[in-house]
């Protein structure tokens, strides 16, 4: 049976873990080699980028930013998990909160910020993940981590004792949206948590072109060479043979402007054969990941 290689943008439903989605993809496509490009919380919905077959080796190279979210935040109530699944730990009357006051609190959260990971996160602490400790009722001190937020838009505000707001967030990897909601609450003097979360985009993968997992078929996979955002070099048969053996090749140095080394895709017969470091001055391309067809060459 030929290998199935590619990237699929899955619309994850609520109530499923990212691992659950990976397990279903394995069963549907009948392959064990499946991984995802970033966890989405069980209660959250939206884009989950999944790699299949040899494409799992592309995960570190995929264009996965910015990540786009729509979050519904509740002001006047804090929880143990910073989202609606946790137990309430603090409450207050948020009736005095206005849309103008909340809008004014947004700018300090745009740019490079520091966040303390929630106890339900997958961050390691002394050999265990924080969520494992949280399940055991243990809370530990956590160090703040860097996060980057490109933009926050307040698109809806509902006043009340439990005021609610819809936030459209564009951010980098490793940003905790639930923590953002909780921290925004603190900035306006109120306990807060995240009620719902939808991930609408991961880089070029958007919710509009996501596949419902119930309808997943091999035809939904995006070819590896399409998913990447690298410059492309097309190879002759002879050059392809050299690449399959792990040897460097020389291509016309005039193909790319500038100087130094860049990463490129090497294509043969319209499919990805290798990723390579290309010296733009000498035209030397050194493969660092090779993707042979079954029975071809060697796999690095």
What does this structure look like?
This protein is an alpha+beta fold and 300 residues long. The protein folds into 3 domains: 6-64 and 204-225, Pseudouridine synthase; 67-202, 2-Layer Sandwich (Pseudouridine synthase), CATH 3.30.2350; 230-290, Archaeosine Trna-guanine Transglycosylase, Chain: A, domain 4 (Roll), CATH 2.30.130. 16% of the residues lie in helices and 37% in strands. The protein is built from 6 helices and 19 strands. It has helices spanning 18-29, 99-105, 130-135, 177-187, 224-227, 237-244; strands spanning 6-12, 34-36, 45-52, 67-75, 77-79, 88-91, 111-115, 124-125, 128-129, 145-158, 163-171, 192-202, 205-206, 211-212, 232-234, 249-250, 261-268, 271-279, 284-290. The strands form 4 sheets. Strands 1, 2, 3, 4, 7, 10, 11, 12, 13 and 14 form a 10-stranded mixed β-sheet that branches. A 5-stranded mixed β-sheet has the order 15-17-18-19-16, with helices on one face. The chain has a two-stranded antiparallel ribbon with strand order 5-6. A hairpin with a 4-residue loop joins β18 and β19 (284-290). The longest helix is centred in the first third of the chain and has 12 residues, at 18-29. The chain starts with 5 loop residues before the first strand and ends in a 10-residue tail after the last strand. 36% of the residues are buried. The mean pLDDT is 91.
Keywords:
300 residues; alpha+beta; Pseudouridine synthase; Archaeosine Trna-guanine Transglycosylase, Chain: A, domain 4; five-stranded mixed sheet; 6 helices; 16% helix; elongated
């Amino acid at each position: 049976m030929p290998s199935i290689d590619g990237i699929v943008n899955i619309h994850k439903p609520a109530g499923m873990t990212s691992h659950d989605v990976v397990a279903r993809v394995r069963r549907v496509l009948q392959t064990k080699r499946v991984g995802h490009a970033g966890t989405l919380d069980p209660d959250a919905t939206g884009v989950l980028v999944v790699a299949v077959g040899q494409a799992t080796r592309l995960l570190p190279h995929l264009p996965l930013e910015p990540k786009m979210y729509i979050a519904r935040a509740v002001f006047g109530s804090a929880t143990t998990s910073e989202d609606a699944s946790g137990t309430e730990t603090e409450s207050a009357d948020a009736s005095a909160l206005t849309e103008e006051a909340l809008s004014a609190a947004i700018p300090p959260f745009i740019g490079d910020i520091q966040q303390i990971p929630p106890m339900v996160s997958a961050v390691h602490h002394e050999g265990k993940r924080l969520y494992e400790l949280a399940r055991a009722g243990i809370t530990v001190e956590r160090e703040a981590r860097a996060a980057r937020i490109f933009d926050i838009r307040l698109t809806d505000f509902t006043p009340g004792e439990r005021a609610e707001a819809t936030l459209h967030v564009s951010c980098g990897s490793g940003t905790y949206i639930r923590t953002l909601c909780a921290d925004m609450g603190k900035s306006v003097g109120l306990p807060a948590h995240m009620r719902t979360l939808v991930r609408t985009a991961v880089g070029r993968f958007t919710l509009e072109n996501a596949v419902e997992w119930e309808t997943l078929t091999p035809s939904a996979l995006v070819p590896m060479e399409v998913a990447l955002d690298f410059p492309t070099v097309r190879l002759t048969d002879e050059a392809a043979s050299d690449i399959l053996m792990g040897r460097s090749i020389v291509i016309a140095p005039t193909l790319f402007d500038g100087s130094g080394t860049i990463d490129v895709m090497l294509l043969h017969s319209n499919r990805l054969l290798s990723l390579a470091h290309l010296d733009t001055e000498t035209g030397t391309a050194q493969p660092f990941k090779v993707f042979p067809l079954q029975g071809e060459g060697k796999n690095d």
